Amino acid sequence: MILLKRIHVIVALALLGSVICAAQLKIHSFEKAEVLQKSENRPVVVFIYTDWCAYCQAMKNTAFIDRQIAKKLNDQFYFVALNGEEKRSIRFNNHWFRYKPNGANTGTHELAEALGAINKKLAYPALVILNSRYEIIFQHSGVLTGKALQVVLNEALRSPAR
After folding, report:
1. How far apart are CA 60 and CA 10, in angstroms?
2. What is the pLDDT of residue 161?
3. Of 12, 41, 95, 104, which has the fewest Cβ atoms less than 10 A away?
4. What's the start-to-end Cα distance of the chain, in Å?
5. Where are the alpha helices (DSSP H) in 103-145?
6. 103 has a pLDDT exceeding 80
7. In this structure, are residues 80 and 27 in contact, taking their beta carbons and an 8 Å threshold?
8. Confidence (pLDDT) at 2
9. Backbone angles phi, psi at 41, to 5 degrees
10. Can you tell me the mean pLDDT for 75-79?
């Protein structure tokens, strides 16, 4: 009887662990997304954030932990998170993008500006969807709820420019 209870507990924990792991969002670098793109073309979702942005953290802790959204991003997109203040140079789509200081201990990454700026202004958080040719098919500044993000992802998958 005790052995049977232990087996049930072990099976339940294993199932719970697989459910939790299945909902884990895979975050790729730009370089990794380009390599993956060679074997399977998918749209690329870029989340542009900063560490100090409370709205960015709120979106990370709500929309991106939703199981359905994580599954859709993992299965049908390549997801890249880009710190808008990243200091590391990034090679993407045959171009180098670098950090540009604009004051004492402040600056913006050129790639964040290139992808996220709307009317030449970058606001955080920003969400950008690129088709498999790295053309922008969606841009949004500000928080997206899980429900709104689900709609955006579905529309991106229906886009003929995908």
Report:
1. 31
2. 65
3. 104
4. 56
5. 110-116
6. yes
7. yes
8. 55
9. -70, 125
10. 97
Q: Quote the mean pLDDT of the chain.
A: 88
Share of the chain above pLDDT 70, in %: 85
Angle CA 99–89–37, to nearest 5: 125
Please state the domain extents for the chain: 26-158
State how far the Cα of 78 lies from the Cα of 44, in Å rounded to an integer.
5
CA atoms within 13 A on the CB side of 68: 8
Maximum CA extent, the chain? 69
pLDDT range class, residue 9, cuts 50, 70, 90: very low
CA dihedral 114, 120, 124, 127 (to 10 degrees): -50
CA–CA gap between residue 43 and residue 63 (Å, rounded): 18
Tell me the CATH class for 26-158.
alpha beta
* 3-class SS of residue 141: strand
Return the residue matching tokens 């709609």. 151
Q: CB neighbours of 7 closer than 8 A, spacing ≥ 6?
A: none
Structure tokens at 37: 């793109």
As given in the structure block, the two tokens for residue 109 are: 């990454």
pTM metric for this prediction: 0.84
**Quick one: which of 99, 150, 118, 111 has its CA closest to 33?**
111
